[in-house]
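Budget justification aside, the reviewers requested a transparent look at the raw inputs and outputs of the sequence design task funded under Objective 1. We therefore reproduce one unedited record. The lines immediately below are the structure tokens for a 746-residue chain.
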């Protein structure tokens, strides 16, 4: 019997030695899958930056900074007349660290006048931490790993007091707690309490199932004792605060207090108030039962119980307890950094990332993805969406609320994507910016004119084009007779009016005057779908394109012909701070600068007096625009730009119904609103080689600038001195028709 006992003792001892070694190995190698975080562009502030106090406050509110009356702590700000005092949170950017610090930002005339630190010393530039747009977590877990050192001391004291007040004294298990649980279980007649310490809770979460059996509890206790004997209390606590389960978001489990702080309050754990800390600690007992979004009354009662217990143990004062108990829950309806305000943009980012990263890397490698999203642009674009949908629903085109839209804003020189709306609301299904292919209507006209100028360098804004009825018969005998939108004929128009006023018949005369095949071939080269049969209706926009494709083509047109590939991602950084991906800037010449610049100026006329005048008149800056409307108003388009940014919007119905939509009415307001919260830039006036500025009269003749109605336009330099000594003549009455002989049409 003794031998058997000794044999069993040795076997148990060896098992414990093996178990201990295995447990140590597992715990030492403990790590968590931390998904990629996607960030917006940082707000950079410096003297002369084009930001108002209201715009900066908007971004501080997005970042969940709290307004205060006194001196701001980290994550807070104070308004002081024309100044903002901000307790900045630091951020480790790929090119260096932005420190935590107190700063003062002064504003004057819609500009940043000065930036100083807390000691009133001037700062060259500051960068607020970038807004988290989304987190690409794993399928079943969501986690932000926060070290113990980043937690407020009071939080840890409250946690230990409520969950395991003898944590720093016991050896992994609490005999008192187990005894109390046994008595309560006997009284209840069922297994209702476990008497678990923080160490036991950690063991259960990391290594065991959630079944409630005595065997599982015994294993849990053994694990806890072994873990406590090998590792410090701080190491165990560090693991616990990042592992504890605190909620559910769809299929994703919320683990760790760092994640929960962002999930419930949208702030780092160190910035939580006493009442907010108590709420999170109270969730340990039952995250679903005390979910503050689903059961606010239960959550409030549980939070106040935690506060009462903390006060009774001297962790917080009675004054703190009373103040915290009176505080409202103040939980946003949906998770702060998972609201899904930017699903269209995130989808673009995902598609870009998919070209270089696997889904496993994006959900487990802790990558930081820095993008070009501009919250100010998105803000205006989103307001434009809401306004136009409300207007359409109030009228016949969309009384049932079924209209759809897609909109994209890009930075013209770099091709960076600044904002995206994928549909009429934030539910991401079909992505109408990336995937919808719709007829582009008159958006094609600037490219027709650019192709014409490339083919005949004599053409310019004042060149005359016939605007009369034209009928074209194809090989099958079908006759195509395009009409102007208002069914009027102007006889003769200037070339710039073809773009600015979107004149159909003149566009067709221009193309046939130069050679239809040559123009269509060039459109195909420019990325405008033409098709093998080369239908002449391509000249008026029967080609189908997505808003993304349209924005890409116009980016080149308004960039002196240079096309930079559209992109949302600026860089990808790993958890060690190493830059894994930074797309180098590259561009190609898509359109000759001479043609692009002249068409750019024609689009400026469109924003001033043409079909886009509602856009141009709203802003003092010189803007450029082009409207587009397809047959029966099935599609409404608008492209608008200042000197730096370009926006494209489409409005229509997924079933392609006749809707009577007009580009200047249904699509223009979306892009117009998108510019309202940013400092707008003037269109550049520099000209490429071969062009110079001259003054033209209404007939397109070069005249003296003092002539009535004379307008400044870029034209080929060989025409600069023609007719400059007088104010020209009327083409209808002029006997000198030399300047008219090369007009297009007939």
């Amino acid at each position: 019997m003794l031998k058997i006992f000794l044999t069993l003792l040795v076997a148990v001892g060896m098992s414990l030695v093996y178990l201990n070694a295995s447990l140590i190995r597992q715990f030492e190698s403990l790590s968590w899958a931390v998904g990629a975080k996607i960030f917006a562009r940082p707000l950079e502030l410096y003297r002369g930056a084009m930001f108002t106090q209201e715009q900066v406050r908007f971004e501080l509110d997005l970042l969940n900074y709290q307004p205060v009356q006194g001196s701001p702590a980290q994550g807070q700000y104070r308004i002081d007349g024309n100044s903002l005092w901000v307790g900045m949170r630091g951020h480790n950017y790929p090119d260096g660290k932005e420190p935590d610090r107190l700063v003062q930002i002064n504003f004057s005339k819609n500009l940043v006048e000065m930036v100083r630190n807390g000691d009133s010393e001037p700062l060259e530039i500051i960068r607020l931490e970038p807004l988290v747009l989304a987190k690409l977590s794993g399928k079943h877990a969501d986690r932000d790993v926060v070290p113990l050192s980043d937690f407020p001391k009071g939080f840890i004291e409250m946690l230990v007091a409520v969950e395991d007040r003898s944590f720093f004294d016991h050896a992994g298990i609490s005999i008192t707690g187990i005894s109390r649980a046994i008595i309560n279980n006997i009284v209840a007649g069922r297994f209702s309490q476990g008497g678990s310490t923080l160490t036991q809770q950690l063991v259960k979460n990391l290594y065991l199932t959630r079944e409630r059996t005595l065997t599982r509890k015994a294993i849990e206790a053994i694990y806890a004792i072994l873990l406590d004997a090998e590792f410090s209390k701080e190491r165990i606590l560090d693991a616990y605060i990042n592992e504890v389960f605190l909620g559910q978001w769809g299929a994703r489990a919320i683990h760790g207090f760092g994640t929960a702080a962002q999930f419930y309050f949208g702030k780092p754990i160190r910035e939580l108030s006493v009442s907010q800390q108590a709420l999170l600690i109270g969730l340990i007992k039952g995250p679903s039962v005390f979910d503050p979004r689903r059961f606010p009354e239960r959550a409030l009662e549980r939070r106040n119980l935690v506060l009462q217990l903390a006060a009774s143990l001297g962790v917080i004062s009675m004054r703190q307890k009373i103040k915290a108990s009176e505080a409202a829950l103040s939980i946003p309806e949906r998770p702060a950094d998972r609201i899904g305000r930017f699903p269209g943009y995130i989808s673009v980012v995902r598609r870009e990332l998919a070209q270089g990263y696997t889904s496993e890397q994006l959900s487990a490698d802790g990558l930081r993805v820095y993008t070009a999203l501009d919250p100010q642009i998105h803000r205006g674009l989103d307001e434009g969406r809401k306004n136009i949908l409300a207007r359409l629903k109030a009228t016949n085109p969309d009384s049932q609320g079924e209209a759809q839209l897609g909109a994209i804003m890009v930075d013209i020189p770099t091709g960076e994507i600044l904002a995206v709306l994928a549909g009429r609301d934030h539910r991401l299904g079909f992505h109408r910016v990336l995937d919808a292919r719709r007829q582009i209507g008159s958006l094609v006209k600037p490219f027709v004119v650019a192709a014409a100028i490339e083919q005949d360098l004599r053409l310019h804004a004042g060149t005359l084009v016939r605007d009369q009825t034209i009928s074209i018969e194809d090989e099958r005998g079908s006759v195509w007779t395009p009409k102007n939108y208002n069914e009027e004929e102007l006889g003769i128009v200037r070339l710039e009016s073809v773009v600015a006023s979107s004149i159909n018949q003149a566009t067709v005369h221009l193309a046939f005057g130069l050679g239809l095949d040559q123009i269509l071939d060039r459109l195909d080269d420019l990325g405008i779908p033409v098709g093998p049969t080369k239908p002449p209706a391509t000249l008026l926009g029967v080609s189908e394109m997505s808003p993304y494709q349209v924005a890409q083509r116009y980016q080149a047109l308004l960039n002196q012909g240079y096309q930079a590939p559209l992109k949302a991602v600026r860089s990808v950084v790993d958890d060690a701070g190493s830059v894994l991906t930074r797309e180098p800037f590259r561009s190609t010449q898509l359109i000759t600068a001479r043609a692009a610049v002249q068409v750019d100026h024609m689009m400026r006329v469109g924003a001033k007096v043409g079909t886009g005048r509602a856009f141009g008149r709203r802003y003092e800056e010189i803007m450029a625009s082009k409207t587009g409307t397809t047959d029966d108003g099935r599609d409404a388009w608008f492209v608008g730009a200042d000197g730096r940014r370009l926006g494209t919007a489409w409005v229509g119905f997924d079933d392609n119904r006749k809707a009577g939509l007009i580009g200047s009415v249904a699509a223009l307001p979306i892009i117009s609103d998108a510019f309202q919260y940013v400092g707008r830039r003037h269109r550049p006036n520099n000209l490429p080689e071969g062009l110079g500025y001259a003054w033209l009269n209404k007939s397109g003749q070069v005249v003296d600038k003092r002539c009535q109605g004379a307008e400044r336009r870029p034209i080929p330099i060989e025409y600069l001195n023609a007719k400059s000594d007088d104010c020209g003549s009327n083409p209808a009455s002029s006997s000198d028709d030399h300047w008219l002989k090369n007009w297009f049409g007939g």
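The CA atoms of residues 179 and 491 lie 100 Å apart. Confidence is low (pLDDT under 50) at residues 187-193, 732-742. Computational costs for records of this kind are itemized in the attached budget.
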